[in-house]
Design brief:
The chain contains 11 helices and 12 strands. With about 290 residues, the protein is α/β, with parallel strands linked by helices. The protein has a 10-stranded mixed β-sheet, sandwiched between helices.
């Protein structure tokens, strides 16, 4: 009887552990301030949404100095105590949070003209980078903002090395890669790498471009969750072409875990400022 009871307790404990792992989600941090203002419309079961965006409210009303410094209530600067610069060979990067034993890893890849500093700037882009840093540190996670040599093979090799390095130290952590603007080229390149794709928890394209090659990638075959945020007045990468790409994903795989958020009247940098990190990452975590 004792042996039977022990086996029952062991099975119950393993079941609870498995259920707990599947239920992991990021705890709130300033959700009221960073929630989408309003939804103007939706389609495809809510996978496509049009979100209200207004420059006078979402920049001028949010920033103490428009586009330079957000109001103080949007940031929590204690997170700086968990932020350090490191280098893997020539790959310089910021790491914020747990460098070992992390539950979740999020990486931001900047666009043309950016640098590793963009992804850790507490005050620009409406404080949204400060929020992701806080979300990671408050949830036993790791946030990385690296430099890289280019948006081609060299950049892909560098970021794949970065992922290998930190994933080896946090083997249970899903890796989420967010790519701003031209950084999207690296998101697509990483999606084509079977080793990287096996570790991905999701890809986020923020004011970036389209690549139908994604539909044949290992990441697509694994149904890695995919988020597209785009401003309706983006003159660099027109929203209509990203919407066509979104439709192509659904046409190729109707049940694919993909979301599209169109920020109405938003411009090229709007998705970096306005994307709700917690909502998006929790949705991706729920797909695991």
């Amino acid at each position: 009887m004792i042996a039977t009871l022990c086996r029952f307790l062991l099975v119950a404990a393993l079941s609870l552990a498995a259920g707990g792992a599947g239920a992991f989600e990021l705890a709130p941090h300033k959700d009221r301030l960073f929630a989408y203002p309003a939804t103007l419309g939706s389609a495809d079961g809510g996978r496509y949404r049009v979100v209200d965006y207004r420059e006078m409210r979402d920049i001028n009303g949010r920033d103490a100095v428009p586009e330079r410094r957000v109001r103080d209530d949007y940031v929590s600067l204690r997170v700086r105590a968990f932020q350090q610069q490191y280098a893997l060979g020539d790959l310089r990067h910021y790491a914020v949070g747990r460098r070992e034993g992390a539950k979740i890893i999020t990486i931001y890849l900047h666009g043309q003209g950016g640098s590793r500093r963009q992804g850790v700037d507490d005050f620009t882009f409406g404080g949204n980078f400060n929020r992701i840093k806080n979300l990671m540190t408050r949830n036993d996670g790791l946030y990385l903002s690296p430099d890289f040599p280019d948006f081609g093979a060299g950049g892909k090799k560098a970021i794949a090395m970065l992922i290998d390095h930190y994933a080896a130290r946090s083997p249970a952590a899903p890796v989420f890669v967010a790519c701003g603007s031209m950084g999207g080229a690296l998101c697509y390149a990483l999606a084509e790498d079977e080793r990287v794709a096996s570790r991905l928890g999701g890809l986020l394209l923020l004011g970036s471009h389209w690549d139908t090659g994604f539909l044949k990638s290992p990441a697509f075959k694994r149904k890695v969750p995919f988020f597209i945020g785009q401003g309706s007045r983006d003159t660099v990468f027109p929203v209509e072409k990203q919407e066509t790409f979104f439709r192509a994903i659904l046409a190729a795989a109707p049940d694919y875990p993909v979301r599209f958020v169109r920020f109405e009247t938003g411009t090229h940098g709007t998705p970096i400022r306005m994307t709700d990190w917690r909502e998006t990452l929790n949705w991706m975590l729920a797909q695991r």
